[in-house]
Amino acid sequence: MKEFKRIGVLTSGGDAPGMNAAVRAVTRSALARGVEVMGIYRGYSGLISGDIRPLGLRDVSNCINHGGTMLYSDRCPEFKTEEGMKQAVATCRRLGIDGIVAIGGDGTFRGATELTHYGVPCVGIPGTIDNDITSTDETIGFDTAMNTVIEMVDRLRDTCESHARCNVVEVMGRGAGDIALNTAIASGATAVIIPELPFDESAVIEKMKNSKKLGKRNFIVIVSEGVGHDLGPALTERIEAETGIETRFARLAHVVRGGTPTLRDRVLSSRMGEFAVEQLLMGRSDIVICTRNGEIVSIDINYALVLDRMYKGKLKDGDLAPFTEAEISEMRAFCEEKRVSLASLYRTACDLNL
Ligand code: ADP
Ligand code: F6P
Prior knowledge:
Number of domains: 2
Order of helices and strands: EHEHEHEHEHEHEHEHEHEEHH
CATH architecture of the largest domain: 3-Layer(aba) Sandwich
Low-confidence stretches: none
Bound molecules: adenosine-5'-diphosphate, 6-O-phosphono-beta-D-fructofuranose
Helix content: 40-55%
Number of helices: 11
Strand order of the largest sheet: 3-2-1-4-5-10-11
CATH class of the largest domain: Alpha Beta
Oligomer: single chain
Radius of gyration: 22 Å
Mean pLDDT: 97
Strand content: 15-25%
């Protein structure tokens, strides 16, 4: 079995609260096992340019409670080229980096699997507020982002109640409606619009007119950015025109990506970071660390990426070729279960929020 003397850790793609807790967990778990740790700054850009420094026990002190990422992050198109990849491999060889834990989203995992094939074993950890990585029940940063959204929406509701207004609130999530849907339930929003499911605008307008007649003063409508950035402002105008309720639009944007990570994110990050190191040192790579029903598990990166494309209806020719019939059926069943659970959450949002 390969002996690991030194590993690297990086954060890449959009940052997410909890990434620091994951870096800390990776660092301390590796050091506890006698393996040195190198902090790779600015994601794959730092791997190419050699922006890398050793991380000791105390270098990751006082970071578990901070949002953002102490290693910084970047989007690095150069890493997708053969030249960029070869430079990254050369950096690893030069600095004696035997393996890497890469914290990020699906783009980061595509990079990690490439790097593994070039001879540097990698393990991925899902860090993104969007919760859009199908293979894991939860991603690092999702819980914090949702808690930030409900805090903001509660504030908007106060002022809506005072002025008898509606606020349309757009939240991040890329193509996934998870942040919007869960926060709509938790904040008692009148309606929620997500990219995965159809939205009946006239029914919502009717519902708002009726509620207004019955004395309701404040209205919140949550819109996931995945339905397009034009929808929120346009809907704001239509709601006001058709219901007579004064309506404002708020885009929470990157506000939701920063801030102190919640307990849940800190624990998830710590567990995933430790597990990632255990797996890497056991000789496992080309895997992503996931959570399934509360357990931390590892899943082959290619399986995770294909499962993700299957769920999002983006399968490419040949994607399923490496898998057995049993694996493909398992993937289909998993996607179906996820769709059913999303639809059930959506029904809850519609049924309770009147
Ligand atoms: P996320 O990881 O949040 O999905 P990105 O999609 O921006 O964010 O991906 C992060 C980085 O991963 C990219 O900037 C690039 O350096 C690397 N990456 C993405 N796709 C690939 C790929 N196909 N091959 C190699 N590296 C990739
Ligand atoms: O993936 C995280 C995320 O914040 C998405 O929710 C959002 O669509 C995107 O990144 C924004 O990207 P940028 O930081 O490049 O504006």
